[in-house]
From TrEMBL:
InterPro entries: Methyltransf_11 (IPR013216), SAM-dependent_MTases_sf (IPR029063). Gene3D superfamilies: Vaccinia Virus protein VP39. GO terms for molecular function: methyltransferase activity; S-adenosylmethionine-dependent methyltransferase activity. This is Methyltransferase type 11 domain-containing protein. It comes from the Eukaryota. Residues 55-162 form the Methyltransferase type domain. It comes from Dictyostelium discoideum.
Amino acid sequence: MKVLTSEELKERWSIFSKNYQHYNECATAPVAFILITSLGLTSEFGDNNRCKSILEVACGPGAGTKLCLDYKKDSTKLISTDISNEMIELTKEKLGITINQDSNEISELNFKIQQCNAEQLPFENGSFDRYFSNFCLHLVTSPETMLKEAYRVLEVGGIAAFSVWGRPENSNQFTIVKKMAEEIGLNFGTTQSRSPFHLNDSNKIRQLALDAGFSRVLVGHTFVNSPIQNGEEYSQVFLSNPDMQSFIKTLDNEKFSLWKSKIVNHVDQLLSKGEFIGSEATYIVCTK
């Protein structure tokens, strides 16, 4: 399986940014809220809610950014980042920052947004006491490097929270497309990138974080249902990403139509039986 470079990731997410915002962002926001609460931003216990600075890595179209701004204290600085300038522009739109405006700051909210690579953060050691990244760690070229960078930019006692795709058996929204393809003899072969499920093992991801230097690592799972209402909606969402679009170009119309119809029918059957379409998220909360 191909592992994408940082430049390839930047290009891919720039192309896919608006589709992601339209179809996928709504299902990521609940997990972003879990990460934010894990940082202590919503807590009145102890010193958890007294953080001075937060770094968000891979803000995407801004759902987690908006949540964080809603819950952080006015005195707490938030810097949100993404590798894709297009994602940054979508976040600025969501927050009401004029796209053509030179400034990427809202001073009254103690907030700044900027483009950067999760594996090469442009910040000094110990710059933040909180860090969160929603659904990015499993995508980067080297999760080990991203974890080490998170550790580096946190001060001692700082907390980082990450989420990744969970276990495939609990994530039907991400497995239906492949399952239906296999039923009619379609094989994605080498057109697919490394599986986004590659970090779903609790022991593996915990050990990666410990190896990066974190002193305590907690691991959990949660299920997020999709707002998809029928099979046609599902096919629009999950056949629109760059991998699927590349693969679809290799098919003749008859084969594609058969595949799509099986996808639509399968999703409609699951919904008619009262089953959610959704996915599991695995998340870790790490203390330096």
